[in-house]
Write a structure and sequence with these properties.
This protein folds into two domains: 3-202 and 284-312, Aldolase class I (TIM Barrel, Alpha-Beta Barrel); 205-281, no CATH class. The chain is built from 14 helices and eleven strands. It has helices at 3-8, 25-33, 47-60, 76-85, 102-107, 119-128, 151-161, 175-183, 193-196, 205-213, 235-245, 250-257, 261-267, 291-312; strands at 14-16, 38-41, 65-70, 90-94, 111-116, 132-136, 142-143, 166-169, 188-191, 219-222, 229-232. Helix 2 (25-33) packs parallel to helix 3 (47-60) and helix 8 (175-183) crosses helix 14 (291-312). It is globular, with a radius of gyration of 18 Å.
């Protein structure tokens, strides 16, 4: 029996990441309808928009779905109140202290998962009473841990340090990757980049096409001193790299970053001036496919790889 499928009442141990500008109600409902767990990414929303996405997701699926809430976000407290009011069964929190809101959410029967990138915070999550943790490795797209610990190392370290259900993230987009995560001690996987390249994703088509064109080495973790983020190389990336190489101050980097870079790149399709946040696994993404097709392909490959291992292991 799988701990995560039991915890969330889903068919497959596949969770779609709650990515800003990419994961609205269409993607979340499509993943949930296909047997995974879809998440609405609230980090790019205001309260009214979040309510709209929740209402549409409820109409589009009768299966469980959740909301991802970055706790450092200005609307975090309002979003917490919204998910309680709307009786959302599952909440994934990130970028903040899990002990602040976990007791309140759990008092309303909500299952709570927190995203972390190191062992220290995994232990804090367990102490805070979360139901599960997402261990996000260095390969992941978007905002990332400063430790630069890869999934291959992070997952077994957190499995050794904690006893709660563990969801692996970062560099996973295939059935073979999912099987590897399970071998390292994970109970499920959270997949982001692969679900960006779907018709249901709210990412701009030009961003999706850039993902398909990506190859090894086309992403890099930038702005480590300010706020680490993995993105595709473009004009904006070159400008930030030049500033960092010239020894620019945090203030100068922040000023050049400005506001709305992620929206400009991922949602509006400005390929040169915007942030194109995506993981290293983009080099393995070659086609835009429906979320349901992706989930079925992952599960088929997972079982095939399982059988292959049985045939070769002595």
């Amino acid at each position: 029996m799988n701990k995560i499928t039991t915890l969330f009442d889903i068919k497959y141990p596949i969770i779609q990441a709650g990515m800003i500008w990419c994961s609205g109600w269409r993607l979340a409902s499509a993943v949930s309808n296909a047997g995974g767990l879809g998440l609405i990414g609230s980090g790019s929303m205001n309260p009214d928009i979040l309510l709209e996405h929740i209402a549409k997701c409820k109409q589009a699926t009768y299966k469980p779905f959740g909301v991802n809430i970055p706790l450092i976000f200005p609307f975090a407290e309002e979003f917490i109140n919204i998910v309680v009011q709307e009786k959302i069964p599952i909440v994934f929190t990130s970028a903040g202290n899990p002990s602040k809101w976990t007791p309140l959410l759990k008092s309303h029967g909500i299952r709570v998962v927190h995203v972390i990138a190191n062992v220290k915070f995994a232990k804090k999550c367990e102490e805070a009473g979360v139901d599960a943790v997402v261990a996000e490795g260095f390969e992941a797209g978007g905002h990332n841990g400063r430790e630069e610990t890869t999934s291959m190392v992070l997952i077994p370290m957190i499995r050794e340090a904690t006893s709660i259900p563990l969801i692996a993230a970062g560099g996973i987009a295939t059935g073979r990757g999912m099987l590897a995560a399970f071998a390292l001690g994970a109970d499920a996987v959270q997949i982001g980049s692969r679900f960006v390249a779907t018709p249901e994703s709210s990412a701009h088509d030009s961003f999706k096409q850039r993902i398909l064109q990506a190859s090894e080495g086309d992403t890099k973790l930038m702005m480590k001193r300010l706020t680490p983020v993995r993105l595709l190389k473009n004009k904006f990336y070159d400008e930030i790299e030049n500033l960092e190489n010239q020894g620019a101050s945090l203030e100068q980097i922040a000023e050049h970053l400005g506001k709305g870079r992620a929206r400009k790149g991922m949602f509006e399709g400005n390929e040169q001036e915007g942030e194109l946040e995506i993981g290293q696994i983009s080099g393995l993404i070659h086609q835009i496919k429906p979320a349901a097709t992706i989930i079925q392909e992952i599960m088929n490959e997972f079982h095939q790889a399982q059988q292959e291992l049985k045939d070769i292991i002595i």
